[in-house]
Amino acid sequence: MAERGCPLEAVPLPAEVRESLAELELELSEGDITQKGYEKKRGKLLARYVPLAQGVDPSLQAETRIPGPSQATAPVPEQQKTRPSHARDERFRSDVHTEAVQAALAKYKERKMPMPSKRRSVLTHMAVEAYTPPDTSSASEDEDCLQRPGRLASAPLQSHAGVAPWLDQAVQGSPASSAASCTSSHPGGRPAAVPSAAAVPAGPAALARVADLHSAPPDVTTGLAQHQHTYCERPQLASMRGAPRGGSRSVLETAGGVPVSSRVSSKIQQLLNTLKKPKRPPLKEFFVDDLEEVLEVQQPDPGQPKPEGGQTAVLKGELLAVGSTWPPSLLATLQQWGTTQPKAPCLTALDTTGKAVYTLTYGKLWSRSLKLAYTLLNKLTSKNEPLLKPGDRVALVFPNSDPVMFTVAFYGCLLAELVPVPIEVPLTRKDAGSQQVGFLLGSCGVALALTTDACQKGLPKAQTGEVAAFKGWPPLTWLVIDGKHLTKPPKDWHPSAQDAGAGTAYIEYKTSKEGSTVGVAVSHASLLAQCQALTQACGYSEAETLTNVLDFKRDAGLWHGVLTSVMNRMHVVSIPYALMKANPLSWIQKVCAYKARAALVKSRDMHWSLLAQRGQRDVSLSSLRLLVVADGANPWSISSCDAFLNVFQARGLRPEVICPCASSPEALTVAIRRPPDLGGPPPRRAVLSMSCLSHGVIRLDAEEKLSVLTVQDVGQVMPGANVCVVKVEGTPYLCKTDEVGEICVNSSATATAYYGLLGITKNIFETVPVTAGGTPVSDRPFTRTGLLGFIGPDNLVFVVGKLDGLMVVGVRRHNADDIVATALAVEPMKFVYRGRIAVFSVTVLHDDRIVLVAEQRPDASEEDSFQWMSRVLQGTVTSTTTCIQLHKKAERVAAALMEKARLTTGAHVALVYPPGVDLIAAFYGCLYCGCVPVTVRPPHPQNLATTLPTVKMIVEVSKSACVLTTQAITRLLRSKEALAAVDVRTWPTILDTDDIPKKKVASIFRPPSPDVLAYLDFSVSTTGILAGVKMSHAATSALCRAIKLQCELYPSRQIAICLDPYCGLGFALWCLCSVYSGHQSVLVPPPELETNVSLWLWAVSQYKARVTFCSYSVMEMCARGLGAQTAVLRVRAVRAWREPRTSPSSRKPPRGAPPPAMKGVNLSCVRTCMVVAEERPRIALTQSFSKLFRDLGLPARAVSTTFGCRVNVAICLQGTAGPDPTTVYVDMRALRHDRVRLVERGSPHSLPLTESGKILPGVKVIIAHSETRGPLGDSHLGEVWVSSPHSATGYYTVYGEEGLHADHFSARLSFGDTQTVWARTGFLGFLRRTELTDASGERHDALYVVGSLDEMLELRGMRYHPVDIETSVVRAHRSIAECAVFTWTNLLVVVVELDGLEQDALDLVALVTNVVLEEHHLVVGVVVIVDPGVIPINSRGEKQRMHLRDGFLADQLDPIYVAYNM
Questions:
Q1: Among the residues of 985-1111, which ranges form H helices?
Q2: Which of 341, 527, 1196, 1435 is the most buried (most CB within 10 A)?
Q3: Nearest Cα to 1408, choosing from 1433, 1379, 1382, 1432?
Q4: Predicted confidence (pLDDT) at residue 734 exceeds the cutoff of 80
Q5: Above 80 in pLDDT, residue 1199?
Q6: What is the rounded distance in angstroms from the CA atom of residue 462 to the CA atom of residue 1343?
């Protein structure tokens, strides 16, 4: 048996030997051992497993050699990944071209031309190693095969029959060296096959497995033998794609797997060995970019969803009916109908007006096909030899308006045993698309093109009058197949009888994501099986009429309209696309006119027919029993199907008629929905979370959300097919039930290969899925479809995207079809011609950037189209909730708290949610069951070490018995990363509200007293103190009532809010006011402005908000980011990536309705723009904002400020009917002595102060001395005290300070009005009676806030406010971006952020000290120059000076320069 070259029996090596070999390989790869030492040690390890015939010392062979069973399996250890080389050049290489060039190199073998070759070294002491195995770990640059992007490589498992053929040569002592072709250099490749059921001694077989991994370095000093050798087939358990490129051990060969001989000098071998010195592989967490810069790989989110279901199984379709009714071949069927039913209509062609121009009968189709076949075989000669021979490829170049001649040409080629290659008509000589088609024609060896006389006249001509040579096309002979150009065959001539064999029937072109064009070969057997499967699945019968709108040259249009229709003697009415452009309703009219039983359309045809159906009263679709939606797998098809059914159900269309299907060029039809009369189950749809889908996980979501993807099933598996879902990357393991993977099909009705590309053919068409344990699911290979999906209920197939449309942005995956669906939802009819939208991605810095291209309508202006484009980029509203929807959500939360968490009335519940409607629903859910909610900002996934301890602290201090949050945050709180920051075992009960059932509570909690605690408001002050204040139900109602009266929040109003929703007035506006007042709130989370700074202004303009709230940080972000773009904003909308969230409202647009057309950003609707803050108003910023956006219509007096603090979140609000805010100028020197002296504007040492808004109704304010607690007059600066029904009732706790309740919330004046209970704000200010009157006619009292008592600086016996010193420092030099001051012992410390060159840092020290000394008469003790962003700022835009002080004392600021003036 060994003499015949059969494989050896494989026996596994002991585990300790394999481990030693792996360690040895690692030492060699890292350069810790020389090549000679490596070979010596390896030889000793393997000596006992080598037979004596190999020339090994018998003393080295152990007597305990393990004899394996005759059919033992020898798994191959996983190979180490080799470091890719020349990765920079891979972007400019076409792998399809590479393999085609290698195929061409095979021709030189016959000429005996010497070609260079890489060889492994020949070891004299071990003859078996003279024959190295094919390299399955990597391929050289010149041998890369086309791989689908995004697929990782891994070594396939090898069975005992897969021992490499090189070992047989070693046993026989043959000098020939085997080499792997491109197809076998990649995982999944394999050489030609020989019998594999041989039994040979096991020792060399065991060595074979290892030598494949541990081969000697290449040797190019010896020549290759000339004689041939028979190769053994290597069955594979797993076929992989995407092998790493640039391996160092590949050999150069022809496409046929035959090595090319060469002999070079030993110096070249020595140089090669030097260049092959192993290099240390890069670290896994870093990669090298094109500029050789080391960049850190983005780490995955630890809280991302992961699949949790069980392993899926292979889904088997129904058996294909076997009987005498099926014809032996499609051509036999054509002959039968052409001779027995010659007058039966086969195909009707229409012109652009909808008139039938020609009807092709089956008799005419048969006779014309015979004439064409005879002409092709007998009348075309070249040098007195036939131009064509059976098996040659012929191009079919026909326009989409001529299905008759195409069908004749297609069947004529089949009768002549030629292989038709349908292509599109080239538009110009240099058309980029036709260049790729030209490459396909060249690789297929096409020399003849068939066309019509009219089409040839329209092709570009050369000066000779002949058809011009298209760029990239091979030389072609053009043949016009109109009747007068064909020769009638003799009566005794008959075409060769053809059975449905494995030969190629036709080649369909396919364009990949990168633009490469490949030819998909379909055999005669597959063609016949596809027709049979479609006939059985669709229930086609003889003489039925089918209306076809699709391209008849490829995909479903070819399979149904040209092939399956002929098998069943159907009549096809072909609708040209030019007719659809002129009359989108034409296909429905033809269904009605011809009483068609079936129709073949795309969702776009259904969509456009809806627009043209108005006024058509006589249309009826009652004759249809089958409406095949060819692109039913696309996400936008479900909306088209639903809308089409809603409109035409009244005109006879039955719901069960609509049958979406899924298909791919490789697997042909994958699945199709079947009507109930054909045994199909009821249709289903799935509402999936798009966030989870981006991680490849299936999670059902609520349908009322807009952040979901609704998909419909594409029916059952085709008859006779088996389907499974495998992982997209790496080894094709079966997916879990809740995991998205690639759909693979095993069927006789799939395509067979990529023509001429053996490497990628094996990767795509010979995949063997395996279970989690590595066991193959079938002994037959599967075909990868390129469709991403899963198997749903009733064994229905769901498709959510395609691999070619997969784009990776960050760590998430997005599909081009989803983005197209988003664009189609934004009223494209007015701006986009025929809905033509394309999406692709370009790689920028190792990440994808999404590009959307839309064809502009001729009657649409560029300005309108740009506005539509801006709206598309803004996307859709993330969530919209009405009051009734909010009520139902709150009920579900309340039921979950009582049933799952088992909480009692009064229990505290922490709400850890991102900004959104879920936070609001959870808040009211707590109130429904009598619990006390505590809103907490969620931790940042990328900064858990800093943010998670704050969350844990609030949960512990508030004594929360339960944590309500989302599924993603739940995983984050319990992740390993969180364990490093906090003790995750001490979390209270964590309840995920994403999956709570829909239940109602028996009764809603009614507080027995207005003073019952409603919620806790926790916040961290600027001094770093964490405190929670208690808000009763009475105070909450009073707060909402006061804000409603002050701001006139009627139900018809739209309020835009860009604030954090976790504490203070921001929480009240997000969660309370819209429900209390009934108005519509447009909620814009401030973090969204980091990626789209114009989002807030766009929302204000889009929703015509009269009142809007923001923070100083938001205002500053807009002023800096948009200040120079006001001219552009006035005309066009600035691009926005996400539209704001919308809170509960009594007036809501329909769900999913796109926003109205945008006319640019227009702020003239704004009456009041209030800045929410707990500090002195920033006059410079508000004035600058007003001036910058005045051109956008912002009223000059619209911007105002508010004031609130922890004891009372809303003391002053400007309102809509009050007088304009006033500004006064005070002497800064007098303020240092707590005196208020008004001066004229421009006076020396003058300080402008703006009132903090109008005092709210029901609120009383007084200025009191902070120490004596006596009332103060207008000329004194004192602490602001407030008395209000919506003041907090006290601190729940103060972290570190427990005795402040009475001091802050129950203060009384020492004289005067000693009965009133006041709350101390901790802020210094003064009151001033103005001459202005409010709406009630009363004089207006203005409150001026100067600063915080906690942050005030006591220096030289005077009070200084940090903001005054900081303002002076920032004005000192333009490179000073920000400044913060604090005291250290008795020294003044100034921290300055430098926005400039570091060499300028020293110059700033003198400027800072001088300006502080001149304007404030203070000596600066320390000047610290730091980088921008070092000064901490909270979400409200307030500086955290105490945190900065702590960092300074702990030496954590990493300063650029520090100057001490002791």
A1: 1033-1047, 1064-1067, 1074-1077, 1095-1102
A2: 527
A3: 1379
A4: yes
A5: yes
A6: 87
The answer to whether the beta carbons of residues 342 and 822 sit under 8 Å apart is no
873: helix, coil or strand? Answer: helix
Q: For 1288-1410, list the strands marked E by DSSP.
A: 1290-1294, 1319-1333, 1339-1348, 1353-1355, 1358-1360, 1376-1384, 1387-1394
Nearest to 479 by CA among 347, 371, 362: 371
Task: Provide the Cα torsion 1234, 1239, 1245, 1250; round to 10°.
Answer: 70
Structure tokens at 1193: 């219509």
Q: Greatest CA separation found in the chain?
A: 128
User: Which tens digits make up the pLDDT trace of 109-145?
Assistant: 444 444 443 333 333 333 333 333 333 333 333 334 3
**Tokens matching residue 645:** 């059914």
Q: How far apart are CA 852 and CA 873, in angstroms?
A: 9
User: With bands split at pLDDT 50, 70 and 90, how would you rate the model's confidence at 821?
Assistant: low
1337: left (phi over 0), alpha (psi -120 to 50) or beta: left
Rg (CA), the chain: 39
Q: Are 476 and 392 in contact (CB under 8 A)?
A: no
DSSP conformational letter for 789: E
Residues recorded for the chain? 1462
Of residues 101 and 1254, more confidently modeled? 1254
**Taking 70 as the threshold, does the pLDDT of residue 726 lie above it?**
yes
* Span 404-450, pLDDT tens digits: 999 999 999 999 999 999 998 887 766 656 678 888 898 899 999 99
pLDDT at 325: 74
Burial of 89 (0-12, 13-18, 19+ CB in 10 A): exposed
Structure-block tokens of residue 339? 């001779």
Alpha-helical (H) ranges within 341-452 are 362-378, 403-415, 432-444
Question: 1266 and 1277 in contact (C-beta within 8 Å)?
Answer: no
pLDDT digits (tens, 9 = 90+) for 645-675: 888 888 889 999 999 999 999 999 999 999 8
DSSP 937: P
Nearest alpha carbon to residue 1289 among 984, 1061, 1038: 1038
Six-digit token pair at 327? 């014809």
Spell out the SS3 assignment of 1395-1442.
CCCHHHHHHHHHHHHHHHHHHHCCCEEEEEEECCCCCCECCCCCECHH
Distance in angstroms (rounded) separating the CA atoms of residues 1103 and 1100: 6
Angle at 332 between CA 329 and CA 336, to 5 degrees: 145
